[in-house]
Amino acid sequence: MLAAWWLALVGLPVFTQPVPRIEAPQLPAAMAVAARRISLRTPCYALVCRDAEWTGRRPRALPPPPAPGVRERLPAPQVRAAHWLNRRLVGLYAPASARDRVLAYARNWRVDTSYRLDAIRERDTKLRIELGTGYRIQPYVDNGTAVPGPVARGGLSLSQRFGRHARISQRLLVETGRENAYLRQSIGLDWQLLPRLALHSSIEMWHDTAADGGDGLTRRSGTLRLRYAF
After folding, report:
1. Which segments within the chain are labelled E, that is strand?
2. Average pLDDT, stretch 10-27?
3. In angstroms, what CA-CA distances link 108 with 54, 103, 111, 132, 153?
4. What count of other Cβ atoms lies within 10 Å of the Cβ of residue 144?
5. Other Cβ atoms closer than 10 A to 51
6. pTM of the model
7. 208 in helix, strand or coil?
8. How far is the C-alpha of 52 from the C-alpha of 138, rounded, in Å?
């Protein structure tokens, strides 16, 4: 009975791949596996589609494993490179969203269509540009012109991070119509004092070319607030 079980274990094709006999030619297959002289781990293949159809790059091959019984110690930069390479080979990739879009706006005071472009979209810097045309229904609402009629609008939004705690944001909006042009600009600074405590300061300016008898009028305001996240 014991001999039958031994033949079933050693002689039958119970492995899913050929055993590499070069590493342990003097031992039976089962004993070589038990002694960890050979490995039955199947190779891992992964599809890599990280914009390869555009760049033409191919993933680099992983370095071959060390010989049996020899421990190869790589320097820290090579270990980190191999780690990031493994993450790239088995990681999933989702394409980024579109940088431009067409937006429609309709309210009781204004209807328009605008084109928005994210010119810069990085971790620390963001720049957005917006242009459009429409029709002003109610004057001086939502930073608008003085009289009803066709208008052209444009805007610019910039956000820049400095270090780990500071961020400066700037917003510019211009609308021009038949009688005047209306401009609004705001500059803000956010400073992270503590993980839950932040200081917010901003300066805003409004300019109307038709105000004050047609000579134009500029108004300014500033705010300083301390925010705490509960």
Report:
1. 100-106, 110-121, 125-136, 149-162, 166-176, 181-194, 197-208, 217-228
2. 49
3. 46, 17, 8, 18, 17
4. 21
5. 11
6. 0.56
7. strand
8. 52
